[in-house]
Design a protein that fits this description.
This is DUF2529 domain-containing protein. It is built from five helices and seven strands; from the N terminus they run H-H-E-H-E-E-H-E-E-E-E-H. It is of the alpha/beta class.
């Protein structure tokens, strides 16, 4: 089981890197604008995606300008700020409300999301959407079910890709 999971996980991460290469670059450029300017990088993670928030705010390689985002904080944000959102579903009502408030305040944002419903469209107000291509668990069981659904792990992979790209961009400004 572990070998199957590891093989499938490697395939998933490779697929993300290959399919989302341009979007990762676009997202990193957008988020970096806050770090080279007068803005802050706000992070919001919902449910299991708080793993991204924890890494961004408390991890060993955190960005000093990173702050947690709450709905009540949105009115104080400016167009110099940037927001990284992470949610298990792009059509989550709470997430959609947050995105609409960011849009109203002209705050650019990037969304990392999974969705069991592959037909769910990305919210139009999001500047860059990084969808996670994970619809079910990675390991088949004897009963035909699938287990091992590493959505937060895939989101952390995307976050680390963004972080590395952002560090490259910031190095060019120094």
């Amino acid at each position: 089981m572990l070998k199957i999971f590891t093989t499938q996980l490697n395939g998933l991460l490779k697929k993300i890197a290959e399919q989302e290469d341009e979007k990762l670059e676009d997202a990193a450029r957008l988020l970096s604008q806050a770090l080279v300017g007068d803005g802050h990088l706000y992070i919001y993670g919902k449910d299991e995606m708080t793993a991204v928030t924890a890494e961004a705010l408390y991890g060993k390689e955190r960005f000093e300008q990173a702050k947690p985002l709450t709905l009540s904080a949105v009115p104080s944000l400016t167009s110099a700020d940037r927001v990284l959102l992470a949610a298990s579903s792009a059509d989550d009502p709470e997430l959609l409300l947050l995105i609409s408030k960011l849009y109203e305040h002209q705050v650019p944002c990037v969304l990392i999301s999974g969705s069991e419903n592959s037909d769910a469209p990305a919210p139009e107000q999001v500047d860059v959407h990084l969808p996670l291509p994970l619809r079910q668990g990675l390991v088949p069981t004897e009963t035909g079910d699938r287990i091992g659904y590493p959505l937060s792990l895939a989101a952390l992979y995307v976050y680390f890709c963004l972080s590395l790209l952002m560090r490259d961009i910031l190095a060019e400004y120094e």
